[in-house]
Amino acid sequence: MRRIIFIQLSWPSRVAGWVALIIPISCSSVRAPVLVDTIQLVAAGRLAQGTAVHFEIMGGVVEVWSKHGIQIMVLFSLVLQLLLFAIPIARRHRLMERRKHLARLNNLVLWLAYQLADTTATYALGHMAIISSPSGERRQLMALWAALLLVHLGGQDTITAYALEDNRLWKRHLLTLLVQAAGVFYVIPVNRGSNPRLSFAAALMSILGVVKFAERIYVLRFSEDMNKVGDLVSLLAPPTRRETYTRRVALMQQEKALKLAHNLLEFSMGQFIDAKVSLSQYPRSIIMAHYDDDDTLYMLVELQLSLIHDKLYTKSPVIHTWLGCLIRAFSWLATAVIGTMLVFHFVRSSSSRNYSGGGFDAAVTLTLLAGAFLLETASLLKAAGSTWTVQILDRIRWDGRMVLWFRRLVKAAESNRRWPGFIGIYEYVFEVIKCDWDFSSSIQKIEPDTKRYVLGLIRRMVHECRGDEEKLRISRGGLSLQRLPVPPQLIQNKITHNEFDESFFIWTFVSASFVSHPSILHMDSTNPLCGLRDAINQISGYMDYLLKKKPHMLPPPVRHRLKYRIIYERENGGKNDIYQELIRGGFTEAKLEGVLGVWVEMLCYAASYCNRESHARELSNGSGEFITIVWLLRAALFKASNPDDDDTQESEN
Q1: What is the pTM of this model?
Q2: What are the tens digits of pLDDT across the range 572-589?
Q3: How far, in Å, are 91, 480, 499, 575, 635 from residue 470 at the CA level?
């Protein structure tokens, strides 16, 4: 029989020892009993030695945590606040346009910081409440740390909601923050002491924390209702102008373009809140002046999405009010006064020798105050140099040239207001061959030619509808198919009279077969039709990506099983009549434009019938989806080309 040696160890070592001592050995106990015993004894000895080292390390960690756990948690809370302030700014930077993986990492870190910020503060406050009260000045320092945690719970100006649902859950946030605030106001009196400076600092920071706490809840509640956001946008809109804008803006003059975007913001916000908003004379003249300038039109819409994001996901609704300005001035001044006062206190009294925490507590306190002062200073400068500040000064007839000079100096508009330009692509061919595996999706930079073709086709759609907005909204391929050599009855049976998802799947296979034809697939790179082919692949792949990854961005119903039925019919000799009609007579530029035109019409149709909240929800990443840009472009071009009667009367007056 096999011999097993048991060594008296602690229970974790015994549990782990079973793994090493009962491993089957390929030696028989009859042939080599001594060898078996020796191997198992050596294994047990090494296990015991490793376990001892493990417990020694864990013992050191436990000792450090028991002595400095609170300090570690409050410092970690400060780090999370720094991340919450910096990452929303960094992910808009132009560097993200070139490094998509860095953008993904930023979003992941931001999500973790947002989720951990409140939890960390709650844990630290609970830890302060249950531990035995220290003696001396450390008790008052703990009260100050609790007040600083309350300031942290107020959040940063750059983010109040990670997702649109956070605004709707403002009551839950209110309850959570009230419980956390109650913990703060329990810890502060319990740890009160005799030092008046520290008591004053804790009291003042508590007041500041309550103010920021209330501000965060107010912003969450305010941003829940898009109608209120729309009213605020109208209130902060530039003053109404009756003159006509005629001067074109060069592509690199983004500060001027940002100012023009503010003039169009009321119209774009109206699309999000489902309000019938008309273009007045001045905004309409802006669109018409750049009607054939693709780059500027895209830039204006991208800048507007960035501004709408500010109103839905940041403290912007409060920052640019008189109350918001007073809060920021008060918080900066209070942090500066407390920091200066405590620096002199620690230097003059040499208090690092008077309490058990030693100099580490003083260092932690000064680090927290330095971090708070840095955040308040950055928030104040960001608010003062914001494009919203420029618009407010313009509205009240104050000179905002100093702010504009500062913004141009730091290149604020160029660095963090543009759409990154990435879209998801889902390859249909990979999906069929690899049985719907997820790795066929990818993130690609949308080509400039693709954007140019899309905008050109939108212009043509607007022109062909001749003022009929309903015709423009319901068109999902009919306008472009009329220019293709396809019988009208076939178009109605396959595309226009089916549900959107069925038409979508049918056209997916038609266009995939069309661009996969050897004459198109192996086209020379110098051929001018290559741009159209690549645009078809990108837009069709993007629509497939929305269907697979973000079906909420498409009009219902989205029935994935239809796809497999169409695949089955196609693979089993089913007719592909539209494809046969398309390839008849060769491949021309008109045919490629027609195929792409159907995709653009479907994209516009999906954008129009998509839930408006889905468009707003995608703005949580700071930029939004390309389908949202197409949606706003189509609406703006149609309104500019077909002014309402009220707009006409206004321009005549």
Answers
A1: 0.82
A2: 444 567 777 777 877 788
A3: 38, 17, 18, 33, 12
